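Hi R.,

Quick one: here's the AMP-binding enzyme family protein sequence you asked about.
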Amino acid sequence: MNSRQRVDELREQFSDAHADVAWLLCDRHPAQRIAFTVVGDGGSVSMTFGELATASHRSAQAFRAAGVRRGDRVATLMGKSVDLVVTILATWRLGAVYVPLFTAFGADAIAERLERSGAVLVVADPDQRHKLAPAPTGRSWSRAPRRSRPTATDCWPTPSRRLHRSRSTVSRSVATERWSTCSHPAPPENPRVSCTPWPIWPVFRPTWNTAWA
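And here's the predicted structure, written out as tokens:
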């Protein structure tokens, strides 16, 4: 398969209005294969597709228990990490919309974006928690419950859009984009994925090289 054919194949798969995001990005791959690797100052951490499936099912169940439903917005205030990938995939498993929040934002900027996006749930790193105002419903913030034996969650067909982001730091308007913008052509012999430095992009991004941001 040449590069042009690979591009056409990816476009067909990722442009399908009824595509199953979780299946395309995770569930169809061999469970033992490495899904991604996060490289940081303290070393690297890898996760297999099987581990990613289990963890994202567990998180999706926790989100559902918290009241998240199809079409709802779920925001993340997180650095690039294994947990971020799991959270994004869990959000998509429920048919919800992923809202990335840049960790460099201050409390006011975050509050405005949460209000504009209509996010019903925020998943934040511990060191970002102080930027979040108390929930208007009076709910307290807590750790997501863990399940020792997670079961599969329903996988909804892909709605027309999946990624919600700030269009501009000046106008602070928001734009909702198709989740399929996360697909980029990559040679089939190099299925590695990378994490871009921009918070507006989903974590899943095929690449030709092994560099990680």
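The chain is about 30% helix and 15% strand.

Cheers,
M.
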